[in-house]
Amino acid sequence: MADSLRRLVCAESCRALQEKLENWYRDYEINSCDQNLNRCCEIIELNSQIQGQLFTILNETSREGGHYAGVETIKTRLLPWLGTCFSCAASGRHFEDSLSLTQDSIEKERQLRELASNQTFQLQELQEELTSTRLQLSNVQQDLRTSRAQEEDALRKLDRLNDYEQQIQILRDEITILDAQNSVLQSRLARSRSPSPRRSEIKSSNLLPPRSCSPGRARRTNASRRACLVTRFGDIYAQERLDAETLLRTYISDMEMVQRIIYIAAVESFNAAKMAYRQFKIRVRDTLSLGHSGPESLEDTVLDYIVRHEDLYDVQASVNEVIRSMNINPKISFPPEIDFIVISTLIRELCRVAFSMQTLIPPLDIAFGTDGELFSETKYYRSFDSDFTALLVAYHVWPALMEKDVVILKGEAVTKRGALWSRRSRSRSRGRSRSSSPGPLLAHHLSRSRSPSPLRSTSPRR
User: Fold this and answer.
1) What Å distances lie between residue 111 and 75, 118, 183, 335, 453, CA to CA?
2) What percent of the chain has pLDDT over 70?
3) What are phi and psi of 401, to 5 degrees?
4) Is the pLDDT of residue 201 over 70?
5) Can you state the angle between helices 255-288 and 241-249, rounded to 10 degrees?
6) Which of 39-53, 172-186, 275-289 is predicted least confidently?
7) What is the secondary structure of 258-291 as a DSSP string?
8) What is the distance between the alpha carbons of residues 261 and 246, in angstroms, rounded to a whole number?
9) Which whole number is the average pLDDT over 129-148?
10) Fewest CB atoms less than 10 Å from the CB: which of 36, 79, 162, 338?
11) Considering Cα of 294, then 300, then 302, then 304, what sign does the dihedral take?
């Protein structure tokens, strides 16, 4: 920078510019317009050369000061002058205005920097608060997990305690039954003339229950068992019924016949299960009446026993009875080479549910339905292929579940116009294609799967 400044001083350009200005001023009045313009252009050219050298010195000086040196001076002095296209140097007021604007700009930049700094500080505080909140939330969640684990452990202990209490009560009931058995046997032995008891007394003694439930258990669990059975009946409609329908469609192309077969299977399953329940109840009542001496009534004791020992129900016998009834039903037909045993899974589940529903107070049953009856909105839904303007039921797809006269779950039916007339014409023209004797598949199944009921055995169940 010193060399450039020295060359500018030695060149005496500034002194020559001053002399030219003085000469021009002296001769300005006698010169022509062109002469004055030429003098002015010469002075401007000389001034531009001096300015070029000064800008070079300015560049070198700023470079020597470092990357950010002289920034404020350039902003406050040089930029306002350049912004007014070199006219501000001759006008003091314009320079002051530019300087004022520059200062305002600098002040705004300073305020913006302070605002950004404050926002950064506030953001850091928020982040610290968020981190602290997250830590507190993590501690709360850990406490909640610990509390939940303690609660689950307490519930498990309570369940075990309840199980122990139930087992104790069962053992007490068994002791009571055994005491009653012992007293009955001793009284019979005392009255007997022969040391060997009669066969009927041995059979009755063997039929006495090896275990019993706590008195009143059936009534206490009636609501929960009812809810489970209603749900199970709905699940059978949604799952097992559709599976049976799909299976039957592989043998029968008539969809109406398939739905009739499933509906009749449901009706016959309930009939068979109710009959089996009545017989089972009679045998249990006869057996428990010999030694009944508890605080509960005999009917409650019988019902508790049946609820506790539903596994003694011979469901396969009911399935066989349902298939036999369907084989002689005049409303349905089936290919001779295939038997109704193909839907035995659906029949078995319906029999189990129907049997358990008889243990409820009051028991649940299905609604009675006939073809050609007046359609009831409270009992049935219309199938998608129904005539929604028809008033009569052509045929039923699924029975409604009833509790006395109250509908618990709606069934499904198909309504069509002229349903009664078409049903009568079909009944006259259609004959049964099956014999009343079981088919080959049914006979084979009966020979393999039918077994005597546990209550019919002469040895007690252990």
Assistant:
1) 17, 10, 106, 96, 97
2) 73
3) -95, 130
4) no
5) 130
6) 172-186
7) HHHHHHHHHHHHHHHHHHHHHHHHHHHHHHHTTT
8) 12
9) 89
10) 162
11) negative
- Tell me the average pLDDT of the chain: 78
Q: How far apart are CA 250 and CA 403, in angstroms?
A: 36
Q: How far is the C-alpha of 288 from the C-alpha of 180, rounded, in Å?
A: 10
Given this model, what pLDDT does residue 89 score? 46
Q: What is the CA radius of gyration of the chain?
A: 54
The dihedral region occupied by 12, where left means phi > 0, alpha psi between -120 and 50, and beta the remainder, is: left
Is the distance from CB of 457 to CB of 346 less than 8 angstroms? Answer: no
Phi, psi of 396 (to 5 degrees): -100, 145
**Confidence tier at 186 by pLDDT (50, 70, 90):** low
Tokens of 224: 């929960």
Amino acid code (one letter) for 99: L
DSSP string, 137-206: HHHHHHHHHHHHHHHHHHHHHHHHHHHHHHHHHHHHHHHHHHHHHHHHHHHHHHH-SSSSPPHHHHHHHH
Burial of 238 (0-12, 13-18, 19+ CB in 10 A): exposed
Distance CA 151, CA 155 (A): 6
**Is the model's pTM score more than 0.90?**
no
| Listed residue (152, 334, 190) closest to 261, CA to CA | 334
Give the closest residue to 196 by CA, choosing from 188, 204, 184.
Answer: 188
How far is CA 228 from each of CA 214, 300, 357, 361, 367, rounded to the nearest angstrom?
Answer: 21, 21, 10, 14, 20
Mean pLDDT of 388-393: 91
Q: Which two tokens mark 284?
A: 């249990």
